[in-house]
């Protein structure tokens, strides 16, 4: 991926679908007004269309916006639809799974162990 994901504070996935004609300004307005989040805060926001075969990633890196677009030729993205909120917070690994066409809630994925000492 072009963007270094370790620099991203949080990755938010919009639960509902979005009109893919929206560009940086339209998606930024959606982030600030509908989600009550700051688009300039160093977070990435992910949006999809109703057929879930296209996604847009919006990210502000400190001096400009990135807008990445991906369209699948076959199939669709495994999108979360049953959350109670407008957005869902995901991690870098879940983003890779999503972009690879996998569900972000893998039942058999190994959990990362943090702050462990191996002797």
Verbal overview:
It is a single chain. The protein has 119 residues and is of the alpha+beta class. The protein has one domain. It is 15% helix and 23% strand. It has a 5-stranded mixed beta sheet with strand order 4-3-2-1-5. Helix 1 (24-33) links the parallel strand 1 (11-14) and strand 2 (44-48). The termini are far apart.
Note the main attributes of this structure.
single chain, 119 residues, alpha+beta, five-stranded mixed beta sheet, 2 helices, 15% helix, 23% strand
Brief digest:
This protein is α+β, with helices and mostly antiparallel strands and 119 residues long. The protein contains two helices and five strands.
* Average pLDDT over all residues: 87
**Secondary structural class:** alpha+beta
What string, H for helix and E for strand, traces the elements in order?
EHEEEEH
Query: What is the tally of beta strands?
Result: 5
The outline comes out as: globular
Give the count of structural domains.
Answer: 1
Q: Compute the gyration radius: what is it?
A: 15 Å
Helical proportion? Answer: 10-25%
Q: Which blocks of ≥5 consecutive residues have pLDDT under 50?
A: none
Main beta sheet, described?
5 strands, mixed
How far apart, in Å, are the first and last alpha carbons? 35 Å
Q: How much strand content do the residues show?
A: 15-25%
Number of helices: 2
**Main β-sheet, spatial strand arrangement:** 4-3-2-1-5
């Amino acid at each position: 991926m072009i963007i270094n994901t370790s620099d991203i504070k949080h990755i938010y996935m919009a639960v509902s679908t979005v009109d893919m004609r929206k560009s940086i300004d339209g998606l930024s307005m959606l982030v600030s007004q509908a989600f009550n989040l700051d688009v300039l805060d160093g977070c990435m926001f992910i949006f999809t269309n109703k057929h879930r075969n296209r996604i847009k990633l919006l990210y502000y890196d400190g001096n400009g916006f990135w807008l990445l677009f991906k369209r699948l030729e076959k199939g669709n993205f495994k999108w979360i639809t049953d959350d109670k909120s407008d957005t869902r917070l995901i991690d870098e690994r879940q983003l890779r799974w999503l972009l690879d066409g996998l569900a972000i809630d893998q039942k058999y994925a190994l959990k990362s162990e943090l702050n462990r000492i191996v002797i």
